[in-house]
Design brief:
By secondary structure, the chain is of the alpha+beta class. The protein has 8 helices and 11 strands. A hairpin with a 3-residue loop joins strand 5 and strand 6.
Length: about 290
């Protein structure tokens, strides 16, 4: 199994799409090389190879990265072998997680208009999660929400949108600094962990807006079924292409099934059948004589 990513070096090293790393089950070997010598437009290639074949299903579930699974299987029979490939790219659930900011996700990344609704979502969601783990009465929740709304309104009024390019947990602390003494003792420490995780997930989703993917599989034998967008007849390689819009609100599924006929075994079987009938007929003739 081979992963290859091509592009800007910083983009290859960010966390939205991470190449697999060595763990207790699999050993992965990664290299990073410059493909273009142009200083104005450097192009890099990152390649990761699985050191040995695996029969186990590969599952990547870190919410800070693109989530997907890959399952390759082989079934052997007397006269043929069948091969199956299945992979599911988990959808980003943009419409579910960020219903208020869905319309902002197609803007230019340099446009800061999406930052305000993004921060609002992160703050409100972090409070919901915090309340599932800790006690926080409704009055305090209302005060926190009002304080954050006032802070955001002030920033928007003064046109300080760049303020929202800061780390979300830092903005949250500043917004609630005046009511710090009225909050639980470990409130900021515990909610910072939640905010940071939500921000990492959102950063992954926005980083993926500018990415596109091509997935290829070389499958042996005669292709029986697939939903690949392109099939190379010369080497039986299948290609799937997808981008942000394909996984923003829906899962992206890839599959292929093929069969390899064991011609030698079939020929031997046919010869044995022929020899059996010849022997049967020969014995019948001998009995008649």
């Amino acid at each position: 199994m081979n992963y290859t990513s091509i592009g800007d070096k910083d983009d290859l090293l960010d966390s939205d799409f991470v190449h697999p790393k060595t763990n207790e089950k699999h050993e992965w070997i990664t290299s990073l090389n410059k493909k273009s010598e142009s200083k104005s437009n450097e192009v890099w290639e990152k390649e990761t190879i699985l050191s040995s074949p695996t029969k186990s299903k590969l599952i990547f579930t870190n919410s800070s990265n693109l989530q997907y699974d890959i399952d390759i299987s082989k079934s052997s029979f007397i006269f043929w072998d069948t091969y199956s490939f299945n992979s599911n790219i988990k959808n980003l659930e943009i419409d579910v997680k960020y219903p208020e900011i869905d319309r902002y996700l197609n803007v230019n990344e340099d446009d800061l208009s999406w930052l305000v609704p993004a921060k609002k979502y992160i703050f409100s969601e972090s409070i919901k999660i915090y309340r599932t783990q800790n006690e926080l009465n409704e009055i305090t929740v209302d005060r926190i929400s009002n304080q954050i709304d006032s802070y955001i309104s002030y920033v928007e009024e003064k046109e300080y949108e760049k303020e929202f390019s800061r780390k979300s947990s830092d903005i949250f602390k500043d917004a609630l600094s005046s009511m710090k003494k009225r909050l639980p003792e470990n409130f900021f420490f515990e909610i910072t962990l939640i905010i940071d995780e939500l921000e990492m997930e959102f950063k992954k989703n926005t980083d993926l807006m500018l990415d596109s993917f091509t997935f290829s599989v070389a499958i042996p034998g005669e292709l029986r079924s697939t939903n690949a967008s392109l099939v190379s007849d010369s080497d039986n390689t299948l290609y799937w292409s997808f981008e942000f819009s394909d996984i923003a609100t829906n899962h992206f599924n890839m599959y292929a099934h093929s069969i390899v006929i064991n011609n030698l075994v079939l020929q031997l079987f046919f010869i044995l059948i022929v020899l059996f009938f010849i022997g049967f007929i020969w014995k019948k003739r001998l009995k008649k004589e």
